[in-house]
Design goal:
The complex is a heterodimer of chains A (86) and B (519). With 86 residues, chain A is mainly alpha-helical. In chain A, 22% of the residues are buried. In chain A, helix 1 (3-18) packs across helix 4. In chain A, 57% of the residues lie in helices and 0% in strands. Chain B has 519 residues and is α/β, with parallel strands linked by helices. Chain B folds into three domains: 29-167, 3-Layer(aba) Sandwich (Rossmann fold), CATH 3.40.50; 192-421, ANL, N-terminal domain (Rossmann fold, 3-Layer(aba) Sandwich); 426-501, ANL, C-terminal domain (GMP Synthetase, Chain A, domain 3). In chain B, 30% of the residues lie in helices and 27% in strands. In chain B, the strands form seven sheets. In chain B, strands 17, 18, 19, 21, 22 and 23 form a six-stranded antiparallel β-sheet that branches. A five-stranded parallel β-sheet of chain B has the order 4-3-5-6-7, with helices on both faces. In chain B, helix 8 (192-205) packs across helix 9 (223-235). The longest helix of chain B is centred in the N-terminal third of the chain and has 17 residues, at 29-45. The chains are: A mainly alpha (86), B alpha/beta (519).
Amino acid sequence: MNEQQLRTEIRQFVVNELLMGDEGAMLKDEESFLETGTIDSTGVLEVVMFLEQNFGMTVDDRDLVPENLDSVNSLVQFVLRKKHDA
Amino acid sequence: MTLDRALHECAVLHPEKTALVCGDRRASYAEVDGGANALAHGFRALGLERQQRVAIYLDNSVEAVQGIFGTLKAAGIFVVVNPQTKADKLAFILKDCSVRILLTSSRALAAVAGELAGCAELAHVVLADGLAKTESPETTALQEGGKQLHALNDLLAQPRSLPANPTISLDLASLVYTSGSTGLPKGVTLTHLNMVSAANSITTYLRNQPDDVILSPLPLAFDYGLYQVLMALRIGATVVLEKAFVYPYKYIELIAKEKVTGLPIVPTISAILLNLKDLEEHDFSSVRYLSNTAQALPVHHIRRLRSVMPNARLYSMYGLTECKRVAYLPPELIDSKPTSVGVAIPDTEVWIEDDHGRTITAPGDPGELIVRGAHVMVGYWNRPEETARALRPGRYPWERELRTGDLFKQDADGHLYFIARRDDLIKTAGERVGPREVENVLYEIEAVKEAAVIGVPDDTLGSAIKAFLALREGMTLTEAEVIKHCQRRLEKFMVPKHVAFIDELPKTSSGKISKRGLA
């Protein structure tokens, strides 16, 4: 999967699961989930499940930081980094 | 002394001290108080009269806090609405208490503008992030309908001088909306005296000091979150106000970075923290106390928190919005009586009654907890019947007492133990949810013939919401479809975690749906 496909898949997840299908509310790729009220403590668990199930990666406790998870851009970079390290 | 006056005194005493830390922003007492003064002048310029309502529909932020105190300084009544609240419920609240001014953000406004047109009394919408992003057909229609949009910065440009304020302690300060068993939210109506009494009692037993730094990720619409700010800004302490509890390591880092002394939590927060494998490796040495309310902490949470933060006092507390707080367990008893919520908070009297109104003194016998104190609400806004059910004539003819609707028992030392709600309200993730409100939304789904919602035990949430559905003949529905519908229509904490499909719901002999036996 290239970066563009990855980005598309992540954006689709954000629309479907974090925004309940409301495409009109879609954020810009750099916008913070937290600042825009898009995510809460259970939302983070959904993000982790999505990453683990779709990209065959393990998200450690230590990875639960906004730098990895708080926007489409950071999710894309996080997955790429994890894939690279694996 | 009124809530807003106390903030002003603190700002005069130590203007440069940090009152709020919100992300990268540090706001001093002078900034919070001066901004609130300016807002009060601004609200008055918009025509706000004494005891009129201002709603604040914003994330936790300096602006939201200034909105609260600005309203009070203009002698108004503030109503904080959770920013997760959907448009129709927001509109219900704005109509229910005739809100004149709404303070919100352009992002939130875009989602609710269509519903606001029907709020006849609403005259002004003030946007915390300015007017740049408000070009949409809905906001245009709103303006054409006679509602004016304003940028918060224009209001903040008003003079920072203390406005004259006729408020006395008997005036109303806030309406706090809470779920009712009817399915419609109702406004718990609180005077300055109610709120100041609660705040003083709580800061007394928590032993709060001006050098406290309190980390709160709890929403200001939740009275537990609101009081973190009201209490701290009364005594000159600092609140690190987070928008939400989302990233546990960010929370842990803030504790060390800001040398946090007070951690108000709910069981959901402790469950996520205690899941971290390396929790013991972090620095919690600054923490003087933790407090928990809304739902009991599981005993194994208490034991782990005590071992991670051995020097911190841990307070188990119990309360309800109608009087803010009722009881707390003196922290020295947390290891010997971890399931008790202890004794009445200072300057409050409580007792347990049987069904005939007789006081129960025998250990172990269950009954309803009754509360007497200066913090007990005036009533529910415009709800005389529900008010009469909650507040009954007191033992002394000149006062009223609060029926909590909660069953309690006491031990031989008089320490209190929560048993259950008398009605069917569900406590989940620290919030109170009326099953009817969720059921009403489930009935919007065409395939649903019958719906019943109950709480089931859950380690993280306290109770999880479970929906039982019977479908119309020939129609199908999946759990995912049900949850998605609820997510669109309800705040997140109200969305069922579990959905069960059954052929028919159990009924009473009169044909009403009976929840007994559902689990």
